[in-house]
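PROTEIN DESIGN WORKSHEET
SECTION A - STRUCTURE
LENGTH: 290
TOKENS:
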């Protein structure tokens, strides 16, 4: 993989841009990652597995089309390549070498044992807190802000307005009152805040919301933003995901983790066997799957 092509790929992956469009800090980051990847490429392609790999032409062309698809048209794609000194030949060479490295690492990661049902169950039992969906509440609110710089939002007047809004709830829907009075952007949607769990609101609002029954509206609540009225539209009780429900996600997580561990171990072995092992290779083993 040429230096220009590798920098191009790293800049795309990290920042969604070309190297020439990056700021100084981003360029340094791209340069560091590029050097590590080139060292990894050198070791992988020099290995027995790397020498044996062959990238099918169809795979190469598909990767090229995916790369082109990131640009508006062919002209902008060619312009981006020219800016970093890449022509069609060097681009294809870089792509081929990258695909070869990916193929080798995929093969190495697939050589281990499959994730067992016992592995899945143990992970589920030892990480049970990950599979609990906490109680959530669908809520709306009306907000009148307190801002002493504006006469109509001084504390006394803001309190009068929220109390006036509360009084109108006896004859009008919460949504209508929110649209008329609320100073929160949610007013256009009838004050809808969405589904919320604990820890997502100001403490005063959270305490009020989680004390309400479905369809109930709080009294006036003060937060650092101002005065609120909060309504609970629905309650979704805490639910624990079963082992059967969580198993596919756990299996995928464990498979990916084991694959990365196998790749790191293999890359570390290559580095140790190299005539002049580079410290950068040791760092890159944790990023080999980027």
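SECTION B - SEQUENCE
RESIDUE ASSIGNMENT:
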């Amino acid at each position: 993989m040429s230096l220009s092509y590798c920098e191009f790929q790293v800049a795309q992956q990290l920042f969604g841009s070309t190297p020439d469009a990056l700021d100084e800090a981003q360029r340094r980051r791209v340069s560091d990652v590029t050097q590590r990847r080139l060292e990894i490429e050198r070791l992988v392609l020099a290995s027995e597995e790397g020498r044996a790999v062959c990238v099918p032409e169809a795979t190469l062309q598909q990767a090229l089309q995916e790369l082109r698809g990131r640009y508006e048209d062919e002209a902008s794609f060619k312009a981006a390549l020219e800016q970093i000194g890449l022509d069609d030949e060097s681009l294809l060479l870089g792509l081929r070498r990258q695909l070869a490295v990916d193929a080798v690492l995929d093969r190495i990661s697939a050589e281990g044992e499959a994730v067992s049902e016992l592995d899945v169950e143990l992970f589920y039992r030892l990480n049970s807190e990950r599979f609990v969906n906490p109680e959530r509440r669908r809520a709306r609110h009306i907000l009148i802000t307190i801002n002493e710089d504006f006469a109509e939002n001084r504390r006394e007047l803001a309190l009068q307005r929220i109390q006036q809004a509360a009084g109108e709830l006896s004859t009008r829907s919460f949504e209508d009152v929110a649209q008329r009075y609320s100073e929160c952007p949610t007013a256009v949607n009838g004050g809808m805040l969405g589904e919320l769990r604990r820890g997502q609101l100001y403490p005063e609002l959270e305490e009020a919301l989680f004390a309400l029954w479905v369809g109930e509206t709080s009294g006036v609540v003060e937060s650092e933003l101002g005065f609120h009225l909060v309504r609970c539209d629905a309650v979704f009780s805490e639910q624990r995901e079963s082992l059967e429900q969580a198993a596919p996600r756990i299996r995928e997580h464990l498979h990916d983790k084991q694959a990365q561990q196998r790749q790191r171990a293999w890359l570390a072995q290559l580095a140790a066997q190299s005539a002049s092992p580079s410290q950068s290779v040791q760092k890159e083993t944790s990023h080999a799957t980027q």
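SECTION C - NOTES
Residues 135-237 form a domain with the Chitinase A; domain 3 fold (CATH 3.10.50.40).
DSSP finds twelve helices and six strands in the chain.
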